[in-house]
Amino acid sequence: MSTQARFFETTDWPLQPSPRPDSIASSFGPPSDTASVHFSNFPLPPTPVTSRPPSDRLSSVTTEHTIHVPLLKPVTISFTKGSKSFKLKYSDIEFDKDVTGSLKRISLSEPTGMQSTLIHAFPGTRIPIPHLEQPVTSTQVHIPRVSFLEEQTVQTASTLFQAQPQYSFESWEDCVKFQEGLLGQTVVFTAGIAEAKSKGRGEECISQNLRILRAKNGRQVILFFTNSQRKEKKKYITIPLDCIDHIEQSKKSGRPLALTLRPNFELLSQLRTLHILFLDENDQKRFFGLLCHGVGYQG
Fold it and tell me: What is the CATH code of the structural domain delimited by 65-183?
């Protein structure tokens, strides 16, 4: 079964000082077939384990707060209960979170009162990762659908049951607002990738979406879902941008982009180098540009 990664441990890391301009070594010379950028002089960020705040610092207050998601158009919720399939439309979405930022429930309602409020609960989950079900490209129109990979508790009126709701948005802007409200982060970039392979583990994923998220403290991470055929569970993994040592992009079309990683924790030690091929060449160029401008400059 797929699992949701608790990747938000990385967002609490302390910020690193901005690097000096001479910390970047770039190579774009005519004789070369690749464009590359090195970040070797950037200080390594602390590992997630050593940077997590002690549990006694967390507040014991259980007060919840609500985040309202302004929608341009109603969202359609699809789910199956028993042998029946349902599709319901709602105009209002609210996230109920506790004082630590953990998601408790998603409430969907309709101001007209034509149907009961639907409660999508997440007991025991800190922050679930919204899964984009279809790869997104900048050159095609999509109806974005979001799910959460596993079943949760759903309640409508007095009926309580287990289901795996899908959220279908009529606009990409609404889908982004939904993700940002849930994650508490800014979605900087989203694009479909044909495949991702690592030097240390081989195939990582095929036909998935890659996102760059920026936390409130400015730290940015790459997020994607590993759906390889390896024996371990399929799950989301994150790579902090300031853990990238070297970016290399071939000047020939159809070639993957290579990220050489700095092994400051176990996952990056396993991956070592990540080769990513995007579905759309323009998205790959945009991703390369974002990394060149974003690595080390989150402060």
Answer: 2.30.29
